[in-house]
Amino acid sequence: MSDSPKREHWGSKIGFILAAAGSAVGLGNMWKFPYLAGENGGAAFVLVYLGCIIILGLPIMIAEIVIGRHTEKDPVGAFKIIGTGPWTLVGYLGVASGFFIMTYYSVVGGWTIGYLVKSVSGALCSISGSADAEQLFESFIGSPSEMVFYHFLFIGATVFIVILGVAKGIERFSMVLMPLLFILLIILIIRGLTLPGALDGLRFYLRPDFSKITTKVVIEALGQCFFSLSLGMGAMITYGSYLNKKDKILNSSLKIVGLDTLAAFLAGMAIFPAVFAVGMTPKMGPGLTFNILPVVFSRMPYGAVFAAMFFLLLFIAALTSSMSLVQVVVAYFTDEKGFSRTKSVLTAGGLIFLLGIPAALSFGVMKDVKIFLGNTYFDFMDMLTSIYMLPIGGFLIAICLGFKYGLHNTMHELDPDTNSFYLKEIWAFTIKYISPVILLAIVLYFGVYKMIVG
Question: Given CA atoms 430, 251, 29, 326 in this order, what sign does their dihedral have?
Fold first, then answer.
């Protein structure tokens, strides 16, 4: 039996917006967006990314929230209503995506806790160069005991919040964590801009060189847009299912996407001026955060303080996203299996922890264990979800809503009391004809082309 005969709802509109924005604002914004911008021309990538958010991200975001509120079900239950038959598998794909992502996402979340501890303890202050930073990071992720311990701590923090419920747990903590995240970002931006040489980083990030815009940059921006907004994994369907009928979806979606995009943009503003100020290159790839930024902080006055603030920022971003990923699985257990919230959360948390252990050990004792195309368990799970499951899930959501169930059956969910006819029509056209084509291109590029040519 469930904890309550009635479905939970968000306590307020702002609570839903901050919780959904928290789901979207994660390590994809704070860690992945800056290094992709650094690799792909800075401002040129940012400009393309903003276009992708409008063309792809916002329409899919609206579609998922519409499905959630229309059905008031978890992803599986939702597709039993709007899809039926084999389309129900789309719901299972969403739940599986959230679950599998969490098994390795929690490991990276554990890294943020570990580096927060190292910042506070002063361990990062002894770094003198990139070689020292890389050695520290390799030693850290290669330690089985530290990896499993911090993985457990991160899961524990997530479970603690989610077990309290939608309004009393996820919403209440999002109301505190999201403002704190933006406050920390602003402080780090101010500090970075006061460093000598910071203007070079600002020019790199804000002055677009249009010659840098290539097909690769556009495809990378499309992929990052989709992944950073927590789309295709059932999170927004689940969060939308707790939304009151009186709340406006178009209005809320614009604010959620706006906050997510702002967070990603500010993350770059916090990082690039500081990187240029100490004479380092932004083209460092995934190692930008854990291999380069510790060097940047070590060369700053009061660097240990700002390092601690930065990794606290990363931890908050990771936590707000992990809450939504776990809630997807919890909603499945409560809606489809009739579990209580407590049993659902503990079951989901326990399974995620156990299946996340191989990911935690993928950089140490299991680094030589290869699964597919020479990938470690961690890399395989990342590839499986990011390259295949999420874009395919988004593609099938658009096809099912646009052609199987019919957009006319859900249009009434879109702010009926406002004069937004043209916005609704644009959204309907995009979901039916544009989004599927773009998502199919992402799947083919990442899943086929990049797998062949590398």
Answer: negative
* Contact residues for 365 (Cβ-Cβ < 8 A; gap 6+): 144
Which of 140, 127, 142 minimizes the C-alpha distance to 294? 127
Under CATH, domain 13-453 is a member of which superfamily? Hydantoin permease (1.10.4160.10)
Q: How confident is the model at residue 334 (pLDDT cuts 50, 70, 90)?
A: very high
Between the CA of residue 397 and those of 5, 71, 178, 415, 438, what are the distances in Å?
Answer: 29, 14, 28, 21, 13
**pLDDT at residue 454, as a whole number:** 56
Distance between CA 91 and CA 38 in Å, rounded?
35
Mean pLDDT of 443-453: 70
- Per-residue confidence (pLDDT) for residue 421, from 0 to 100: 63
- State the Cα angle at 203 between 311 and 213, rounded to 5°: 95
User: Do 111 and 272 meet the contact criterion of CB atoms below 8 Å apart?
Assistant: no
Matching residue, tokens 């990363």: 314
Q: Are 271 and 198 in contact (CB under 8 A)?
A: no
Distances (CA, A) of 60 to 269, 343, 443: 27, 32, 16
Condensed to tens digits (0 to 9), the pLDDT of residues 164-223 reads: 999 889 999 999 999 998 998 899 889 888 888 888 888 888 888 888 888 878 888 887
> Does the structure show a pLDDT above 70 at 452?
no
35: its two tokens: 């290094």
Burial status of residue 200 (CB atoms within 10 A of its CB: 0-12, 13-18, 19 or more): middle
For helices 215-228 and 390-399, give the axis angle rounded to 10 degrees: 80
The domain locations on the chain are: 13-453
| b (16+ CB within 10 A) / e for 348-360 | bbeebbebbbbbb
Q: 8 near 89, Cβ under 8 Å?
A: no
Contact by Cβ (8 Å): 52, 59: no
Which among 247, 268, 204 has a CA at the least distance from the CA of 43?
Answer: 204
Distance CA 168, CA 65 (A): 21
Of the candidates 269, 261, 243, 289, which has an alpha carbon nearest to the alpha carbon of residue 24? 261
Residue 338 in 3-state DSSP? coil
DSSP label at residue 300: S
